[in-house]
Amino acid sequence: MKKFAVIGSPISHSLSPSIHGLFGKLCGIELSYEAIEVDRSSFTEKVMELFKDGYDGINVTLPLKNLAYEVSDLPSNASVKSTSANVIWRQEGKIHSDNTDGEGLVSDLEEKELFIENKKLLMIGAGGSAISILPSLIDRKPKEIKIINRTYSRAIELVEKFKREDVKLSAGNLLDPLSFKAEAIINTTSAGLLKEEISLPAGTFANQDWTYDLSYSNSETLFSSLARRHGIKKTHDGFGMLMQQAALSFEIWTGNKPDIKMATKLLTPNS
Predict the structure, then answer these.
(1) To the nearest whole number, what is the mean pLDDT of the chain?
(2) pLDDT digits (tens, 9 = 90+) for 191-222
(3) Given a cut of 70, is residue 85 above it in pLDDT?
(4) What percent of the chain has a predicted confidence (pLDDT) above 70?
(5) For every residue of 93-159, which 3-state class applies, written as one string?
(6) Element at 186 (helix H, strand E)
(7) Is 222 helix (H, G, I), strand (E, B) or coil?
(8) What does the pLDDT look like over 112-156, one tens digit per residue?
(9) What domains can you pick out in the chain, each with its CATH number?
């Protein structure tokens, strides 16, 4: 039996055990998958303990993704670009890492026919989730990505970190009115998920084609609800991204590509 786990804090809400358990059944692979509470102070010790105990792979969620990158001996290009990792495994005594968040998001966008090439995107938030997905978004060659954040200096840091000649990056804060007319909005903050008030600049919503909230919920997320109240008709949450990035992790570990559409249907029978 193969052994896997997801670690983070908090972690009790994670759907990863259900998702990977279903992937195993669909692919005919016997496995166990646990959700384990781990904080930053005990991260390295716990990872080494899990690998010593025979775990074949570990998913890593907030706030540990940068530590997962730092502990790895052989990070993937995606991990290096984002300086973070959400999947690690040990092979021949070396810890490997990868970041499937960005490709998971882009795969879900493409599945929903939400293409970003040559588009103007607004990204809300400049934390760990934004860092995880930015390289993959930039690789799809949008016309511009404007990053707005409560702490303006943090948005500037991301612009400097990921700047390229072929894609314009710019920064703003959440206090000044927004004149940037984006064609789509991606929310990377967890404010709505944490039931905090979502405070956005005047002019944020301006007839965008679609919005995407990296958070997900059994009901409509607060950000999606806010977008709808401002007239945005196509609003999406991060459940599709969750499924896509999980499938990429599963394929890395097992060499098997699960049927995402079938898994999604089984997990959300009323969808």
Answers:
(1) 94
(2) 766 566 788 999 999 999 999 999 988 888 99
(3) yes
(4) 97
(5) CEEEEECCHHHHHHHHHHHCCCCCCCCEEEEECCCHHHHHHHHHHHHCCCCEEEEEECCHHHHHHHH
(6) strand 184-187
(7) helix
(8) 999 999 999 999 999 989 999 999 999 999 999 999 999 999 999
(9) 2-99 (3.40.50.10860), 102-239 (3.40.50.720)
Q: Which two tokens stand for residue 53?
A: 């105990």
Q: What whole-number distance in Å separates Cα of residue 223 and Cα of residue 70?
A: 32
CA-CA distance, 34 to 20, in Å (whole number)? 10
pTM strictly above 0.85: yes
Contact 214, 238 (CB under 8 A): yes
Using CB atoms within 10 A of its CB, is residue 28 exposed (0-12), middle (13-18) or buried (19+)? exposed
pLDDT average, residue stretch 250-265: 96
**Cα(225)–Cα(208) distance, integer angstroms:** 14
Burial of 150 (0-12, 13-18, 19+ CB in 10 A): middle
Q: Is the pLDDT of residue 271 over 60?
A: no
Q: Above 80 in pLDDT, residue 270?
A: no
Question: Can you tell me whether residue 182 is helix, strand or coil?
Answer: coil
Active-site residue set: 65
Tokens standing for residue 178:
């927004």
